[in-house]
Amino acid sequence: MREALPPDLPGEWVGVGEVLTTHGVQGELKVLPLTDDPSRWEELTRVFGRTAEATLELHVENVRYFKQFVIVKFREIADLSTAESLRGSRLWIPKSERKTLPPDRFYTDDLLQMDVFDDAGRLLGKIEQVMVTGANDVFVVKDEGEREILLPALKSVVLQVDLAGKRMTVRIPPGLLEDDEG
């Protein structure tokens, strides 16, 4: 997979899908959506993809769903050969074109590397990963000593998120930290 953002695209970008393979002979692509809401693909008008030769601006013509995948037809891709050149590519949109989320909802990449403090003001570490589980997400917080704290992403735990300040304040559930005192 071509993970890195193409160097000829300036600004901030987010991945919205990964091209797994072609679908049929008319240039459709089978895409793994990189979103918790695959229907978001219906709102996209364009994405950017990278072949070995160039970065392509691709205009969405049609979207349909197959299991957990999105089958996408782009105006610029009319045949199997061109579609094949995008296999393994990440599809991108400018960060500024992301859908606005409701209050108390956040994009994962906005939370990564955020400082996490407990409600007493003690720095616990930075969010290194967000694990998606069946019940609720879990923030993997690492301190400078590489100790991990697994914090459930629950309203009872997350007290405040300051995106601009890259800071989260949490209430540690009783018994979560081994060194909790009484």
Major beta-sheet overview: 6 strands, antiparallel
Q: Order of strands across the widest beta sheet? A: 3-4-5-2-1-6
CATH C-level category of the largest domain: Mainly Beta
Category from helices, strands and their pairing: mainly beta
Q: Count of helices?
A: 2
Q: What is the architecture of the largest domain at the second tier of CATH?
A: Beta Barrel
Using the coordinates shown, work out and report the CATH topology of the largest domain: Elongation Factor Tu (Ef-tu), domain 3
Identify the CATH homologous superfamily of the largest domain. RimM
For the secondary structure, the number of strands is: 12
- What is the overall shape? elongated
Helix content: under 10%
Outline the structure in words:
The chain is mostly beta strands and 182 residues long. The protein has two domains: 13-97, Beta Barrel (Elongation Factor Tu (Ef-tu), domain 3); 108-170, SH3 type barrels, CATH 2.30.30. Helix content is 5%, strand content 42%. It has two helices and twelve strands. A six-stranded antiparallel beta sheet has the order 3-4-5-2-1-6. A six-stranded mixed beta sheet has the order 10-9-8-7-12-11, with no helix packed on it. It is elongated.
